[in-house]
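Quick illustration, no need to memorize.
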Amino acid sequence: MATKQHWERVYTEKDSQKVSWYRPHLDKSLELIDALRLAPDARIVDIGGGASTLVDDLLDRGFRNLTVLDISAAALEVARRRLGDRADLVHWEVGDATEINLGCDAFDVWHDRAVFHFLTEPEARRRYVERACCSLRTGGHIILATFALDGPEKCSGLPVARYSAEGLRRELGPAYEVVAEVHDRHETPFGTEQSFVYCLCDKAIDCPT
C-alpha cells in the first residue's frame, strides 16, 4: 500500500486519540520551542503535524504564522475541525515532506515529531534533508524527534529507523549544529512506552549545493 493510502486509511478508520503516537500536548516540543524565545510572527512549520495538538498550543502562545504539513488530508481535517474558527489562522498543506516545495528560506523553525523515522530508504532521507534545508532559513532551527536507539522497530505496521541525537545530526549534514538533545519515554494510549530522542539543531550555514 502506498504511503499516502496508508495514512489516509489510518485517519479515516481510527480515532486520532487512539493511535500510538497520540499525546494530548507535545510537551517536549513545546519546551524546545519556548526556549528559542521566538517572536509571535516567527514562521513555524509542523511536518507531519496532521491531527497533532501542537498547532493549538502554538496558537495559544500567540504565534500567528503557522503551517501544518501532512501527507494525509484526513489527518489535517481532524485538526481543522478541532480548531473551529481558529483553523483559518493556519496554513494547511497536504503533501509528502520528501517531495513538496514549500519555498526556500520560508521558515524560522522546522518541527518534525515522528515523520523522519519512517524514512527507511537513504534516497527518501536525502530528499527530505534537501527540502528541509531549502525551506529553513540560515540561522533557523530544526526540531527533529524520532524513535531512539532503544525505541520500537515498527510503528503503525511500518518499519522505522532509530537514532541517537548525533545520528540525526549526521543525517542532516554539515549545515547544522546540535543545540539541545532531549530523551523522552512516550506513554501510548494503550499504556505501553516508546523511547524518543529530540534533537534541536541550528542551521549555521547555507546548505551545500
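Strands lie at 44-47, 66-70, 90-94, 107-113, 136-147, 154-155, 158-159, 176-187, 193-203.
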